[in-house]
Amino acid sequence: MGRSVKIGMIQLACSSEPAENLGRTVEKIKESAAKGAQVIVLQELFQSLYFCDTEDYVNFSLAESIPGPATETLSELARSLKVVIVASLFEKRAEGLYHNTTAVLDADGTYLGKYRKMHIPDDPGYYEKFYFTPGDLGYKVFPTRYGKIGVLICWDQWYPEAARITALMGADFLVYPTAIGWALSQNEETNADQYHAWQSVMKGHAVANGIPVVAVNRTGREGEMQFWGGSFITNAFGKVLFQAPHLEESVSVQTIDLDLTDYYRTHWPFLRDRRIDAYEPILKRFID
Which of 69, 126, 148, 197 is the most exposed place for a label (fewest CB within 10 A)? Predict the structure, then answer.
């Protein structure tokens, strides 16, 4: 019997009301499960607007503990629907200590653990260093009913080191909850170039590691940012199996064939030919 898994991707526009966002997401999870999804991936920080576009202390009130209220709701939902849920949340770890964190709920409702975002950006419109402490749990792979899921988050997706390490830990596929968009001041050529680069780097992770990649982004206009949607999934050789629209919400389900990993890793043996004896320079910031 071949190994395959049906991945649900929920791409939504968010409002300023966390309860509304959670409620709509719950309904979309049910819709995704009804379409046959076994693993359902939510976009980054799905319970709120992308608040990191400003540095505002009020926004810390959006955070919650993990496990906590959201994971309790999603755990019961996962159990009742028999699906795995990958949920990106704003974690309050302690007073004055916060993380950008993704929790994984197994298909029996079990809370399997969390991954804390390792790479934290600080750019115009993405002031995440103001809010988030860099992750300190290392890279994580979660053994679920439907496969071993390697979880990374948004800015992590630009780093081949993160994808490689997570793949080497035995992930069957990588997921990237994401919040990324176009500044309204940009022209269409710049927009196209940025999206192409974003998708291309993750297709590269799929090819280099021989595993599927799932990226789930938000859509909708927030302030001076148009989130570009375009959630997509690749097979183990970087072939795009599905791509969501840019400016519309989307609930999609796509089957990935996990047996292709062995095929591609055998025919394109990048892991076999790695020169682990020669990679010490990668530990340096820059080689002068």
Answer: 197
The residue annotated as part of the active site, out of 6, 44, 91, 140, is 44
Measured between its terminal Cα atoms, the distance across the chain in Å is 52
Q: Could you tell me the domains of the chain?
A: 4-283 (3.60.110.10)
Q: Is 6 helix (H, G, I), strand (E, B) or coil?
A: strand
> For the residues 15-37, what does the mean pLDDT come to?
98
SS3 164: helix
Whether 117 sits among the annotated catalytic residues: the reply is: yes
Question: Among residues 28, 128, 154, 222, which one is catalytic?
Answer: 154
CB 66 within 8 A of CB 114: yes
**Annotation says 14 is catalytic:** no
Q: Kindly report, residue by residue over 235-247, the tens digit of the pLDDT.
A: 999 999 999 999 9
Count of C-beta atoms within a 10 Å radius of residue 245: 13
| Strand ranges inside 43-96, DSSP E | 84-94
| Catalytic residue list contains 44 | yes
Contact at 8 Å (CB) between 216 and 41? yes
Q: Give the tokens for residue 163.
A: 């994808």
pLDDT value, residue 1: 56
Which of the following is catalytic: 28, 114, 117, 203?
Answer: 117
| CA–CA dist 174, 212 (Å, integer) | 6
